[in-house]
Specification:
Layout: H1 23-33, E1 35-39, H2 44-56, E2 61-66, E3 69-73, H3 78-92, E4 98-107, E5 110-111, H4 118-127, H5 129-139, E6 145-154, E7 159-163, E8 171-178, E9 191-194, E10 200-204, E11 210-215, E12 220-222, E13 232-240, H6 243-250
Antiparallel strand pairs: 1-11, 2-3, 2-4, 4-5, 4-6, 4-7, 6-13, 7-12, 8-11, 8-13, 9-10, 9-12
Helix pairs in contact: 1-5
Length: 251
């Protein structure tokens, strides 16, 4: 799919929802299948501004796992990158593994992105009443809030193997805001959902300015981006009950 983007800077417009979303229809889809693909979720100009920030203004770090150990690197040499990628591919043959680039935005009421970065506006938008109101309307979960968010970049050969997210940390719903123009189906990078026999139930390609929501736990993966593929930009995270709110309920 090819998307025409503005050729000049769009300015520091605030992230804004598309005002024409059919919330009732989206809620019906989510209630029926536990997931929904929301096309054109942001107003056009703000979507293009988010893409500009991801493509041109973000310093990407590498994130991967070695078993249960999470490894994060701000910078990696080309040689080390290839060595770590090869090791990750080997571990992926028999266990859960991920290898991609990320930029942390928000987690448990802490904002990680620098305040002068445009993505600080996006992090604030994802916890604000406008966005959270849409999430609650679509999912039917009236106490839902944003637990965490991070920008992600999958380069060729990056991947996230099959897993279900679980319910740890108060997670109830996962979200992926895709910001990738000009993607081809044979480039991989699809968000795939699986049944209990490992057959693919459905898959969402990284369509530009589309928000994918799905209940967790649910088996899913991001298929490896092909060697001849493009750069897959997105913002992902979880919606649910924040740590402070869970503690208050426990008391």
């Amino acid at each position: 799919m090819s998307v025409a983007l503005l050729s000049t800077a769009t300015g520091d417009v605030d992230p804004e929802l598309n005002s024409h979303l059919d919330r009732a229809q989206l809620a019906q889809t989510f209630a029926r299948s536990g997931r929904v693909h929301i096309a054109n979720v942001l107003a056009d100009v703000s979507a293009q501004r988010v893409h500009q920030a991801l493509e041109k203004e973000t310093s990407w770090g590498l994130i991967l796992n070695d078993g249960k150990k999470v490894l994060e690197f701000e910078t990696v040499s080309a040689a080390d990158y290839q060595t770590m990628a090869a090791a990750a591919w080997g571990r992926a043959r028999s266990g859960f593994q991920y290898f991609y680039n990320h930029y942390r935005l928000y987690e448990n009421r802490k904002v990680y992105v620098e305040p002068d970065h445009y993505l600080a506006k996006l992090a604030a938008f994802l916890i604000a009443p406008e966005f959270i109101g849409l999430m609650r309307a679509v999912t039917g979960l009236d106490t839902l809030c944003c637990i965490s968010s991070a920008a992600t970049l999958y380069r060729p050969l990056d991947f996230l193997t099959i897993h279900d997210d679980g319910l740890a940390g108060g997670k109830l719903v996962a979200f992926v805001l895709n910001m990738t123009p000009n993607w081809r189906p044979d480039w991989g990078g699809a968000l795939q959902f699986y049944d209990t026999t490992d057959h693919v139930e459905e898959a969402y390609l990284p369509t530009f300015n589309a928000l994918n929501l799905f209940r967790v736990p649910k088996l899913h993966s991001v298929t490896q981006v092909s060697a001849f593929g493009g750069l897959r930009y997105s913002v992902s995270g979880w919606l649910g009950v924040e740590e402070a709110d869970r503690a208050a309920v426990a008391r």
